[in-house]
Amino acid sequence: MALVDERRAPSRDVAKPPGVLAYDLVQGALVRWSSTVDKSLPDPPTAVLLHGILGCRKNWGSFARRLAKAFPTWQFLLVDLRCHGDSASMKKRGPHTVSSTALDVLKLVAQLRLTPRVLIGHSFGGKVALSMVEQAAKPLARPVRVWVLDATPGKVRPGGNKEDHPAELISFLSTLPKEVSSKRDVVEALIREGFSMDVAQWVVTNLRPTESPGSPTSFSWAFDLEGIAEMYQSYEENNLWEIVEDVPGGVHVNFLKAERSLHRWALEDIQRIRAAEELAADEGGAVEMHVLEDAGHWVHADNPDGLFKILSSSFQMLK
User: Fold this and answer.
1) Does residue 237 contact residue 270 with C-beta atoms inside 8 Å?
2) Rounded-to-integer distance, Cα 266 and Cα 239, Å
3) Cα Rg, the chain, nearest whole Å
4) What distances in angstroms separate CA 209 from CA 172, 182, 204, 226, 258, one per listed residue?
5) Is residue 123 a contact partner of residue 131, using CB atoms and an 8 Å limit?
6) pLDDT, mean of each 10-residue run, the chain (319 residues)
7) Which of these, 6, 13, 143, 275, has the minimum number of CB atoms within 10 Å of its CB?
8) What's the pTM?
């Protein structure tokens, strides 16, 4: 566990509980809370931020700190999902699916004695957030606002020609050595294979120096690629339309489509979400569709200002 305090004060000495998932907790300046210290303190409102396939919790770091500065009574839980980042060393029993990944996160928030008010998931993480709502009434608060960033509840539609396909990326990475001598060599190999420079540079952020005293510096992957391949297959196959079209009372599901998304949103997806908006309003829940202008699939990198403006409504409404 790492505790990131927005006040820049020295980190509190917080005991690490038995590992469920690796995480960071980014706290606003007015938060006075710890899962292991004074239990009499009321829980601050908490948002959970979930990354996509081949990502890690650090993808959300700067954005979470910006949110914590703007909303100082909130705290933000950034999670490394199973098979990713620092959670990759915590060997998880299969199957590696959207559902099992969501259950991991539910176990973590229960262990930390948190009741999240907001769930934000990018791509694969968006389906994980929906699965969390599907699986458990608790420890999720009511009301709870769910943000599914550039993902739909059902069929995954990769982009067209010249757009990076996650399954192809995973397949190519599996052909590379488990240890490499240079990040630049990996970037060049990815570009030769037809992947974009942006994706190539992002992927190598998952390379970590290998500790081998007296040997030249080498790097190894900070993820379990076999597990990730299984997770991505589940992401493509998993259908969560039911939770959207019969959204529980007190749950507000928000879909955000990137204007220049790598993932094509079919007209039928948009129409189905629009229909769910009307149905949810009659049943005590809510479904809403948003569009983030001037952004591709990597919404928090392409247009962080626009994303911040759209997401801010959740933290203003839930205080």
Assistant:
1) no
2) 15
3) 19
4) 21, 10, 11, 21, 34
5) no
6) 37 48 96 74 90 94 97 97 94 92 95 93 97 85 92 81 76 93 94 91 91 75 94 95 91 94 82 91 81 91 95 82
7) 13
8) 0.89
